[in-house]
């Protein structure tokens, strides 16, 4: 495709150059709802296959000619019209191209030796071809140079194409994009220089900016942009770019490009700890491409896809040792690459085999795999991995001096990559090595450095499920750090490490710890929230009459709503990112109990050995109180989560000098699968001394100037009592009874609430439906006045009542696969500023919910403070257990 500039007085035009009549496709970026398009060829209407998607519209046209003018027009907007001229490539160009390719691949010679002859054929054709085809010869020369390994010529290729284009007055969109993509690839993988790669991609975006873009050129540039972000460690940006690339490639039915984008997307998801999502993509790709490995000569692109899928499996195995060992496939891939003479990728497979051997405890095998690798075939990223794996193998065999030597070399290579993930790996492994050498102080300092880097990496990821999963996947270094602190008797440090691993990334989203935004940033934040609110209201309004639509009309609406829903999520993410700019860092001191009658309990699993499961590993429980040393209980064995908590409580209670019996209340900061245990119920059913009031805590600590709030007078107090479920008579009755009780006591009761209200009520009591949905609960929501209020929206709003009572099913349901329990409506309100949230963790029986609501506000006098209401809840629960 050529974008021609006929002169200052004529509009630019696109010319599609064809070797033969075939299917052509036109893509219009962006939402096309409401448009009514018609395609014509030389003014006559033609049939086309139309594929409408949220991200754009794709038109497929089967041509029977190589000449003519294709026009696409929107009947509802006459100014929206595009024309593309069709033209046949000349026989002179086609002949020169074919002869040059044959010369490069001539038998009994190498591509490097044959390159001059091939380039000579193209140069000789310069006068014979049409003017607009001369830039295509330059493109072809760059492609041949790439195949022959003349990388200097590849780097110069884009400028050569531009020079030819200037003289011809036409930009060859496809091949200029290809030349830039080849140069970007060169600097990403062959001769790594990420700045040069970024410069090539930026130049391509500028050069190809205009009304016409070749879709395959656009696809390749998007892919390499995502790959560059991945190599730089910008995993969230990479995920977005690769996801869009894969979607467009699927729309174009470009199978190889789909595979390339989706496998990189799966790899990025795995790096982020989002293994279930990565596995869905990996399984689909494996089904399509694994049979290719059985061919006598598997195609290169199939090998590349399968090698990346094996890497995804290795990443998952780092976190879950029970994941199947991909070594058999890695050996087959190494053999296939070697048979093709691809030493670089064969070396990558041997690196992966070394990692698989380390994961399986076969350290000698790992060292042999590493020794077989020629370092000259590796770029800086792979050299780092070679040294890190060498350090792990040496450390596992007790050779700590050799491990440190590997780490020093890895550090030198890391200076070239600027990848913070490498820095984290280095410091975590350095800590383990120093520990092995007996340098406890150095090991603890190295773990603290690794923890700080992990925190930076987490906060660079949008504050949603992705961040939780990333933190969960990096928790293994925290587990080893904690073990070392326990060994040295520093139970306070171990307690802080256990809490920090699940809490430090959440404090950035906490309303009560955040300083006020500067005026300009606050206006931008409020603008984003307002746009989001308006868009959500529009989505709700457009959905109301969906039941009246036909199937085809409903599909159009669904596409439009999907696109606008994605835009709404993006607005919310931007608003949340502004909030986190000035967020204070988490410190353990802010968490420490001040009242001697109040304790804080947390827990953490020990680092697991290969092949073990969490239930078989040991757990450590910590109890912190105001004046006494942190108490520690260690448990080992295949116990269920409830049994683990019960056993830990009994061990704390049995300590002769322990603090358990002196406590009136307990904050519980649960982690991993123990977040799902009903600790309220366990302690309510327990006889004997110990805390009577239990708070689940996110581990955020106190705000910097925290003071215990005085109990407000009930008379005139603003409260909100909401019944949102029109289909739940019990919910309406519950809200009516609560409203009557609080009105009787003098409160000013409102039947509505919004997360955007500047003035928030002291109490909100919600009775109705609650939904725990989405990845790690980040799609959870309530319905207020017919509009959806999502957990993410509540967090971003940063406004909440002081006390929130949610009579809604599963409003407090945690996600045990995440170290921090993921997101739910209760956590959302706490992050938005609430001091107490009362919410069920499972579906609610209507009668039970109504009885609890009645009992909660039945005391006389009634004190609406977080402390008093939490104590009242404990009384009600204990009375129910006793009854």
From TrEMBL:
It comes from the Bacteria. Signal peptide: none annotated. Transmembrane segments: none annotated. InterPro entries: CHAT_dom, TPR-like_helical_dom_sf. Residues 724-858 form the CHAT domain. This is CHAT domain-containing protein. It comes from Plesiocystis pacifica SIR-1.
């Amino acid at each position: 495709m050529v974008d021609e500039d006929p002169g200052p007085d004529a509009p630019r035009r696109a010319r599609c150059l064809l070797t033969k009549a075939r299917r052509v496709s036109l893509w219009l970026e962006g939402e096309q709802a409401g448009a009514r398009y018609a395609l014509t060829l030389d003014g006559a209407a033609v049939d086309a296959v139309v594929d409408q998607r949220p991200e754009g519209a794709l038109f497929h046209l089967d041509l029977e000619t190589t000449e003519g003018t294709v026009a696409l027009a929107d009947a509802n907007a006459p100014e929206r019209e595009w024309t593309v001229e069709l033209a046949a490539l000349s026989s002179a160009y086609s002949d020169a191209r074919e002869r040059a390719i044959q010369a490069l691949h001539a038998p009994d010679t190498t591509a490097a030796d044959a390159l001059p002859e091939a380039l000579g054929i193209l140069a000789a054709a310069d006068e014979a071809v049409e003017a607009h085809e001369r830039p295509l010869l330059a493109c072809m020369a760059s492609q041949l140079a790439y195949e022959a390994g003349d990388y200097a010529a590849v780097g110069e290729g884009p400028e050569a194409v531009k020079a030819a284009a200037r003289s011809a007055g036409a930009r060859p969109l496809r091949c200029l994009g290809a030349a830039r993509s080849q140069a970007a690839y060169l600097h990403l993988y062959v001769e790594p220089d990420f700045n040069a790669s970024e410069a090539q991609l930026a130049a391509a975006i500028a050069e190809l900016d205009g009304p016409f873009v070749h879709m395959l050129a656009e696809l390749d540039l998007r892919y390499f942009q995502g790959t560059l972000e991945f190599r730089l460690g910008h995993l969230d940006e990479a995920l977005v770019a690769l996801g869009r690339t894969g979607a467009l490639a699927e729309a174009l039915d470009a199978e190889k490009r789909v595979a390339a984008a989706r496998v990189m997307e799966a790899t990025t998801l795995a790096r982020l700890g989002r293994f279930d999502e990565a596995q869905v993509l990996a399984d689909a790709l494996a089904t399509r491409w694994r049979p290719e490995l059985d061919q006598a000569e598997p195609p290169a692109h199939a090998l590349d896809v399968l090698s990346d899928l094996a890497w995804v499996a290795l990443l998952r195995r780092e976190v879950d040792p029970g994941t199947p060992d991909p070594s058999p496939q890695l050996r087959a891939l190494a053999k296939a690459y070697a048979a093709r003479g691809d030493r670089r990728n064969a070396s990558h497979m041997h690196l992966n085999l070394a990692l698989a051997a380390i994961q399986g405890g076969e350290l000698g095998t790992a060292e042999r795999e590493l020794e077989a690798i020629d370092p000259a075939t590796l770029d800086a990223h792979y050299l780092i991995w070679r040294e890190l794996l060498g350090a792990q193998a040496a450390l596992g065999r007790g050779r700590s001096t050799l491990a440190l030597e590997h780490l020093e070399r890895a550090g030198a290579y890391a200076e070239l990559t600027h990848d913070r993930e490498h820095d984290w790996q280095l410091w975590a492994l350095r800590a383990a090595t120093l520990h092995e050498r007996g340098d406890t102080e150095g090991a603890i300092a190295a773990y603290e450095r690794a923890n700080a880097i992990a925190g930076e990496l987490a906060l660079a990821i949008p504050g949603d499920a992705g961040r939780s999963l990333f933190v969960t996947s990096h928790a293994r270094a925290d587990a080893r750090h904690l073990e070392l602190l326990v060994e040295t008797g520093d139970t306070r440090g171990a307690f802080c490490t256990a809490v920090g691993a699940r809490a430090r990334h959440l404090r950035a989203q906490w309303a009560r710890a955040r300083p006020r935004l500067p005026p300009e940033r606050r206006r931008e934040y409020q603008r984003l929230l307002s746009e989001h609110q308006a868009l959500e209201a529009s989505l709700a309004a457009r959905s109301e009459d969906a039941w009246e639509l036909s199937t085809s009309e409903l599909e159009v609406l669904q596409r439009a709503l999907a696109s606008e829903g994605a835009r709404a999520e993006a607005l919310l993410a931007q608003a949340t990112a502004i909030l986190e700019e000035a967020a204070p860092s988490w410190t353990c001191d802010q968490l420490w109990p001040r009242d001697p009658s109040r304790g804080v309990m947390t827990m953490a699993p020990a680092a697991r050995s290969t092949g073990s499961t969490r239930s078989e590993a040991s757990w450590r429980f910590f109890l912190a109180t105001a004046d006494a040393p942190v108490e520690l209980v260690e448990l080992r064995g295949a116990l269920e989560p409830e049994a683990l908590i019960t056993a830990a409580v009994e061990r704390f209670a049995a300590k002769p000098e322990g603090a358990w019996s002196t406590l009136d209340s307990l904050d519980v900061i649960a982690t991993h699968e123990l977040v799902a245990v009903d600790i309220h119920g366990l302690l309510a059913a327990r006889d004997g001394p110990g805390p009577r009031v239990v708070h689940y805590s996110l581990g955020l600590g106190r705000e910097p100037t925290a003071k215990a709030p005085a109990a407000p007078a009930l008379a005139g107090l603003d409260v909100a009592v909401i019944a949102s479920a029109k289909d739940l008579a019990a919910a309406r009755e519950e809200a009516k009874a609560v409203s009557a009780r609080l009105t009787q006591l003098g409160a000013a009761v409102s039947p509505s609430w919004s997360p955007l209200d500047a003035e928030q009520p002291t109490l909100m009591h919600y009775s109705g439906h609650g939904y725990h949905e989405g990845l790690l609960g980040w799609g959870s929501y309530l319905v207020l006045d017919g509009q959806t209020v999502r957990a993410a929206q509540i967090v971003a709003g940063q406004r909440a009542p002081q006390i929130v009572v949610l009579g809604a099913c599963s409003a407090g349901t945690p996600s045990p696969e995440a170290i921090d329990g993921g997101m739910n409506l209760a956590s959302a309100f706490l992050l938005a500023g609430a001091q107490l949230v009362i919410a069920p963790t499972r579906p609610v029986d209507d009668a039970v919910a109504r009885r609890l609501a009645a009992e909660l506000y039945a005391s006389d006098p009634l004190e609406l403070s977080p402390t008093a209401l939490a104590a009242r809840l404990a009384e009600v629960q204990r009375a129910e257990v006793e009854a």
